[in-house]
Every structure is written in structure tokens, then in C-alpha cells.
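Task card 7
Instruction: Convert sequence to C-alpha cells.
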Amino acid sequence: MERRWLRSSGWLHSPLFLPAALSAMTVAMFANVLLASGDRILSHFGTDLSGEFIYWRKFGFDELRAGHIALWDPHVFSGVPFMGGFQAALFYPFNWIYLVFPLRTAINCEIVLHVFLLGLFTAAWMKRYELHPLAVLLACTVTMFGGPFFLHIYPGHLATLDSMAWIPLILLTLEELVKKPRAGWILIGIFAFSMQLLAGHPQTLFNTLVTCSVYGSLRLWQASYRRQTVLAIAIVGVAALTITAVQLWTGLNASGEGTRQGGVPFAFAAMFSFPPENFLTLLVPGLLGNMTHFPYWGRCYLWEMSAFFGLTGLTMAIFGTAVKFSGRATCIFMVAILTVLALGDHTPLFAILYRCVPGFDHFRSNSKFLVQATPFLALLAGQGMNQVLRSPSGTKLAAMLVFAAVLIVGASGFCLWYSPTFPPIKDGWEQIMNSVVATGESYFPSRDYADPEFIANAAFFAGSRCLISAAILLAIALLLYVRSFEERAAFALAILGIGEMCWFANSSITTFSIADTV
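Output:
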């Protein structure tokens, strides 16, 4: 009787299911922008896209359309290098849509395309582990629509989004080269690394290289063809550098004359380290505000400081740590080490890396290592979901643990909701907000932290988000319990996780009019 219903859903195993599902979800997510008439552009007005990228894309590709490669930008001060600025990304093939489409359409398509590519490449990596299609789809969803990646749409970090999309394909290439070096995967690796470099965000490339160095070193011990694997990786690196030499050479020359020449001060490099209190947003993503419905008042910017990848994803990732699969220990270690790197200056390791490892002294925002951690978390989530889909083993215990979380999160929500009537809770919440502003790392107006009305509204909003999270956790607990005797509950759990991430991502979407930039 077990798995009979799931086996009857043979369409799930069609090779077209995952690409079609990912395409449908991506289009549905952005349909209001893609299909609408007018001049709306994804992202929030006043952030990086409206202040920088929209002008870079217009200037660079207007010049390219006229037959000129824009080497110099005369519109900034007395002029600055343009092509040498990596984020101009003139040679990134996927940006050539700017030669065909109007600016507004091209910007929106660039964002939407890379959300889809991230999901597609994640699916390719997950399929290597022979997971159930619904488990793969859940893993893709938490990667595409999770906070570490998707929230960068809000400020319009085009180069960051483009570069991040290639991470799963690079990891897949590394896996395949460790397994058995083949010419086909060497070519895919050259392509993936070249695309990430040309996409125009050096920090994402650096973080990916760090991730691959650690992950590759761990996996190399299990390789059957170590010498061939090392040679193949070397070929990938040299070939990618050769192909992108024009962009790389001019970019390094331009950066050699910039403010980061020779490194940056330690205080600057330590900026935007992931705040430990933001781990609470794994359970309650709007605990410190969510930018669209209530201002974010935590440290730094939320798009740099969100680790959220779904309550279902988190539950399945924890469940997945108990599932036996090849590379499980390595996967767990990678999540741990990348999380430590994301914490940056909040751990002693960062000071050592800053002084001893080239590269760590040139970038800030170590929190971006969460993006590299997400594929490994997604793999654990996929393994956990796969286990629940295929067997009821352990689901009752998991349901009990999740129900305990329901009680904690729900009780916290009620306390915050009614905090004005409970002075100890009200005072404690106010102290929490004061401790945030005391760090000097918040970009929210300091006067609002002293406003009793804002404090009360922040507590009310946090309480409401806690109650929403408690409700979702309760649904997860019930479905896990029902899964112990009804296999269709596993299907419902996967759908819940996918829907949860779509809701989270959709709630962060905002647009502005291109006319506002004129």
C-alpha cells in the first residue's frame, strides 16, 4: 500500500516536469510586472538600481548598440573607467537583451531570467542525488525565493543576482569532476565560471572560489581520479580566465586605482557581518520588519541579513541531517563553515582571514556567504523531503518537535501582540530595540527607536509575524503526524513548503516607475 498513490503520479517523473514547474512559478511570481503595460521596474526606488544600474545599463548598451564599447564614462565627476568597472557587465551574454528590448523590459527580464536560472541549476544539482521530483522542487523553491538571494531584488542588485545564479551549476561541475573528469563537464565548468565572472560581481566570484576550495578539498579525498580531477579543475580555471581576460584585465587595472587598492581597513571589511540575532528570522522572517509592510529596524540592511529559506525548508533540512546519503557529513560541514564565514566579525576567525588570506581584506558584507550556504541547506531540505515522501519513518517524532516550536513561537507572538498590557514584556522589547541601535550598525533613523508609538507598532508587527509562523509550523506538525499513516500528507507538505516560499517572495516585491529616474 505504501507509496501507491505517489507512484500513480507518474507525470511528476517526466523530464519536463521540473523545468515547466520552475518556469510557471517564476512567471507567476512576476506576472504583474512582466505582463503589465506601463514602465514599472522591479526593485525599490532610491536603492541601487534606480541610483546606479539603470544608468549603467542604458549608457553602456546604448553605446554598444551604436557600435562603440564604452571604455570611459564621462558623466561621473571628470570621468571614470566604465568597461573596467566589473558591474557594467558589457560582455555578459545574457545582458545583450539590452540591445533588443527597451530598458524597462530588459531590466525586468534580466532579473526574472536569473531567478529561473538559479532554480534550473539547483534542480540539475539536486537530480544528481536521485531525489523525488517534489523534493527537488522544494529545494529549488527555497533557493530561488529564499531571503539570501531573492531579497536582493528589492535594492536591484543586478550584478549580484546574475552572479549568484551560477553557484549551483559550478557546484555541480565540481561534483562531476570529482566523480569522474570528463570533457563535457570541463566545458560546462569553463562556461559556468566564465559567466559568473562576466556577470560582474567580484565578491560573489570570490565567495564561490572560497566555497569551492573548501568543498573541493573535502570531496577530493573521496575522488577515484585525484590527479585527473586536479588537472581538470586547473583546465577549467585557466580556460575561464583566458576567455574573460579582456574584462578581467581591464577590471583589475581599474580597481588598482580605486579606493580598495591594497585592501580596505578592518572596520570597513567587517561591515555587514551577519548579526547573530537575525538567526531568529529563520523562524519569524518579519520579526525585525520586512521592508514592504513594516520598516526593517535591525542591523544593516535586510537584503544582506536574511537567512530565511522557509519553515518547511528549515524543518526538512533538520530532518535531512538524519538521512543517510553520500556526502552528508561534508554537506553539514559546509553549512556550518559558510555560516561562520557569514558571521564575519562576530567570530575570531574573521580577523585571522583578514590578515592571512588574500581577498578577505578587499570586500565587506561577509553575510553574503549565506548565498553559498543555501545550496547545501537546500540539499539537506531535499533529502529530508525525499525521506518523508518515501517513508513515514521518524515523522511522528518530527511532528512532536515541530509542535514544541509551535508553542514557543506562538507564545512569543501572543506576548508581543499584547505587550502594551504587560509592562515587563514591553520594557524587555524596548531594551532589545535599544541594544540594536546601540551597536551603531542600524541604518534606521535613531529617533524612531525612542518613539513609543513606533516601539509598540514594532512589537505588534513582530507578534503578528510570530503567530503566522506558529500557524505554518502547526500545519507542518499536523502533516508530519498524518504522514505516519497517510502518504498523501507528504505531497501536501511539499506543496505547503513551495507555497510558503512563494508567499514570502511575493510579499517582498516592489516596483517603481522609470519616469521617476528622469
